[in-house]
């Protein structure tokens, strides 16, 4: 059975992402492991061990009680979406969030990580958020990032951002597996600057793969790379963006550009980041 890790802080962004985790679990016949990680505060009572232990006990008890209260809430969300049959287990731990996520991915052989992300509010902030980006860098699991304002809808059209190179062919095959589960169409898109030469080395292989699948290949020459991609997402009613992990910095830039140009369209669709 495929395993989906769902780290949550019970914020609105993470609860919204939980619906995607449920739908994914139902589609791939998988199970969900929820993870809530909290910090033990640093208290200046190190010379009084008894007092320090009492404070730690109170913090752990408080977090346990909060988590215990939230579990039925997650179950109700599953029931409201007709997913009460989904197997869900829950983990509460303290320490560093990223370290704990990476450890459970390894220990439980996790296939997907579904994370809610908060969008940028200024050009200095990144779209994916620090935690999501660090998880992408630190693990081989596929990371499914759900933006804060992204409301669940059926995945019918998937945009795969690519440069049509050999590395992306391997990633495309994983995207095809995902698209097959949801019976979704894949649009592969490369936006290049007009002076840039086409990458013809693997063109024949790309066309061969596309011929046998529900895939359309696109190459657009334009200096406004980010703007063209944003327009493509809007005009083609894209439901999910997929990318090779090494493209993530570009996607952060893409979101920043959409803010700086004050476009009506924003990157508010889920993003599937596939590791190298």
Automatic annotation (TrEMBL):
Superkingdom: Bacteria
InterPro entries per UniProt: Rossmann-like_a/b/a_fold (IPR014729), Universal_stress_UspA (IPR006015), UspA (IPR006016)
Cited Pfam families: Usp
SUPFAM superfamilies in UniProt: Adenine nucleotide alpha hydrolases-like
Family, per entry: Belongs to the universal stress protein A family.
PANTHER family for the chain: STRESS RESPONSE PROTEIN NHAX, UNIVERSAL STRESS PROTEIN UP12
Protein name listed in UniProt: Universal stress protein
């Amino acid at each position: 059975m495929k395993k989906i890790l769902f780290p949550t802080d019970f914020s609105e962004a993470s609860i919204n992402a939980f619906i995607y985790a449920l739908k994914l679990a139902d589609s791939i016949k998988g199970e969900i492991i929820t993870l809530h990680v909290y910090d033990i505060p640093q208290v200046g009572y190190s010379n009084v061990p008894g007092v320090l232990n009492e404070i730690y006990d109170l913090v752990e008890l408080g977090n346990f009680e909060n988590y215990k209260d939230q579990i039925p809430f997650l179950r109700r969300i599953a029931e409201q979406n007709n997913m009460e049959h989904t197997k869900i287990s829950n983990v509460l731990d303290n320490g560093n969030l990223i370290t704990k996520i990476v450890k459970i991915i390894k220990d439980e052989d996790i296939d997907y990580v579904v994370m809610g992300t908060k969008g940028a509010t200024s050009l200095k902030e990144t779209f994916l958020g620090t935690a999501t980006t660090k998880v992408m860098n630190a693990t081989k699991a596929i990371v499914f990032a759900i933006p804060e304002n992204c409301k669940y809808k059926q995945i019918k059209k998937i945009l795969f951002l690519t440069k049509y190179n050999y590395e992306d062919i391997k990633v495309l095959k994983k995207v095809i597996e995902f698209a097959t589960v949801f019976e979704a169409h894949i649009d592969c898109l490369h936006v290049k600057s007009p002076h840039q030469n086409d990458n013809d080395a693997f063109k024949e292989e790309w066309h061969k793969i596309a011929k046998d699948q529900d895939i359309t290949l696109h190459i657009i020459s334009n200096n406004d790379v980010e703007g063209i991609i944003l327009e493509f997402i809007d005009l083609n009613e894209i439901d999910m963006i997929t990318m090779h992990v090494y493209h993530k910095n570009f996607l952060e830039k893409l979101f920043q550009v959409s803010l700086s140009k004050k476009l009506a369209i924003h990157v508010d669709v889920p993003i599937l980041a596939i590791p190298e």
